[in-house]
């Protein structure tokens, strides 16, 4: 995409966002955690104290770290212990996903966009991304899981803040039996990928997360984060093939030929990748607890 | 006894084992007959699979039902991939998806 086209989309996102009342901010606790982790002198105990100030969040984090998703044999009973065992980044990722689930769990009105199915698709994409990351020896599995979990957040923003326009998008999907990303482009002139990336940029989340969210349908455009985006792109397709959850449509996008070549996976591996992804999804379902 | 996805369980079937949620709470006991409420409770509590009792009649009915569900799953996958399966990798993924879903339906 050239710079002019990109600027045009940014302008549309800006205009759309101007119409949105009360767009959520990232809770200050999350900002504090982010800042603290950037400081190399911060101790596990200090970060744990900030997280522990929110008892509901603490309980969610402990449930996740003790689940089969992480598979530690001994029970982890405190956030400090979780940070020591799993590391700052993993605990930060769990806190970030819990926070974002919390921000977007409430529907404005009961509409056609099923949030539970949406989050199942998102968890599935994160789990499949982890499987693909392991397959190609990608070093940042935790970041891949979170990027998969959050890649479609733009859909919830559109559904929550522009429910009437998004109902038109969903009606377009049903009448044309097309991908939701195609319907968004036709009806709104922008896509959930643009909106999600814009929000993550506003929230000062990592460039990798911003670019992957923006480019998960076109990973070749993700610049320095192309490999990361390629994995999320393929994970999104695998979880659709598993028919786990729903991203709002009943179609599957074509895999980008360049991403497929770049990842170096063979067609003969697809059966095994589907099986491994399904098993990883079973373990990752603990994250669905976040929307309760 | 057979293992079925909770989404695919139907009213009238009997569970062969106690149904327990992810936190270890008993939802209902072995031998309970499923109804819409119990199936919805499984969905709400993220119970993904149930052990269902199989009688001889039920086994026959379930064989016919299985064939119908296999055909339906294959049709839905073909529909999902329609238009993108000219690319060899997408055709391969479509077939892998069919093998995966048919194996799940057969409880493999």
What is the fold's blueprint, element by element?
The complex is a heterodimer of chains A (292) and B (108).
Chain A: H1 3-19, H2 28-38, H3 44-52, H4 55-65, H5 79-86, H6 88-104, H7 115-135, H8 141-150, H9 153-161, H10 163-176, H11 180-188, H12 192-202, H13 207-215, H14 226-241, H15 257-263, H16 270-284
Chain B: E1 2-5, E2 19-20, E3 26-28, H1 36-44, E4 49-52, H2 56-81, H3 88-105
Antiparallel strand pairs in B: 1-4, 2-3
Helix pairs in contact in B: 2-3
Outline the structure in words:
The complex is a heterodimer of chains A (292) and B (108). Chain A is globular. The longest helix of chain A is centred in the middle third of the chain and has 21 residues, at 115-135. With 292 residues, chain A is an all-alpha fold. Chain A has 16 helices and no strands. Chain A folds into two domains: 21-104, no CATH class; 108-292, Hypothetical protein af1432 (Orthogonal Bundle), CATH 1.10.3210.10. Chain A has helices at residues 3-19, 28-38, 44-52, 55-65, 79-86, 88-104, 115-135, 141-150, 153-161, 163-176, 180-188, 192-202, 207-215, 226-241, 257-263, 270-284. Chain B has 108 residues and is α+β, with helices and mostly antiparallel strands. Helices cover 49% and strands 12% of the residues of chain B. Chain B has a two-stranded antiparallel ribbon. In chain B, strands 2-3 form a two-stranded antiparallel ribbon. In chain B, strand 2 and strand 3 form a beta hairpin. The mean pLDDT of chain B is 85. The chains are: A mainly alpha (292), B alpha+beta (108). The A-B interface holds A 177, 237-238, 240-243, 250-255, 257, 260, 267, 270-271, 274-275, 278, 282, 285-286, 288-289 and B 22, 46, 48, 76-77, 79-84, 87-90, 92-94, 96-97, 99-101.
């Amino acid at each position: 995409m050239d710079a002019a086209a990109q600027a045009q989309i940014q302008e549309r996102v800006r205009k759309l966002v101007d119409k949105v009342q009360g767009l959520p901010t990232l809770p200050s606790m999350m900002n504090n955690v982010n800042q603290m982790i950037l400081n190399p002198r911060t101790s596990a105990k200090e970060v744990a104290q900030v997280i522990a100030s929110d008892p509901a969040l603490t309980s969610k984090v402990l449930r996740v770290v003790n689940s089969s998703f992480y598979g530690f044999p001994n029970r982890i009973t405190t956030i400090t212990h979780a940070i020591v065992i799993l590391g700052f980044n993993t605990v930060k990722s769990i806190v970030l996903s819990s926070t974002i689930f919390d921000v977007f769990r409430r529907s404005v009105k009961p509409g056609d966009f099923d949030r539970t199915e949406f989050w199942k698709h998102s968890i599935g994409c994160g789990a499949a991304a982890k499987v693909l990351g392991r397959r190609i020896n990608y070093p940042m599995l935790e970041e891949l899981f979170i990027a998969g979990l959050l890649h479609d957040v733009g859909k919830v923003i559109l559904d929550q803040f522009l429910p009437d326009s998004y109902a038109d998008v969903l009606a377009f999907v049903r009448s044309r039996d097309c991908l939701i990303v195609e319907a968004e482009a036709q009806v709104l002139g922008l896509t959930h990928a643009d909106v999600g990336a814009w929000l993550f940029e506003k929230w000062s989340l990592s460039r990798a997360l911003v670019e992957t969210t923006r480019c998960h349908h076109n990973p070749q455009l993700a610049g320095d984060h192309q490999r990361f985006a390629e994995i999320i792109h393929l994970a999104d397709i695998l979880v659709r093939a598993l028919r786990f959850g729903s991203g709002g449509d009943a179609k599957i996008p074509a895999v980008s030929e360049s991403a497929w070549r770049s990842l170096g996976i063979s067609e003969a591996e697809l059966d095994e990748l589907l099986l491994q992804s399904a098993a990883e999804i079973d373990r990752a379902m603990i994250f669905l607890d976040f929307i309760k | 006894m057979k293992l079925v996805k909770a989404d695919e369980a139907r009213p009238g079937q009997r569970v062969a084992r106690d149904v327990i949620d992810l936190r270890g709470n008993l939802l209902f006991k072995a031998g309970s007959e499923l109804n819409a409420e119990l199936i919805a409770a499984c969905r709400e509590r993220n119970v993904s699979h149930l052990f269902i009792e199989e009688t001889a009649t039920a086994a026959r009915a379930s064989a016919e039902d299985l064939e119908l569900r296999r055909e339906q799953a294959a049709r839905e996958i073909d529909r999902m991939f329609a238009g993108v399966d000219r690319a060899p990798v997408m055709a391969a993924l479509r077939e892998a998806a069919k093998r995966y879903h048919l194996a799940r339906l057969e409880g493999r």
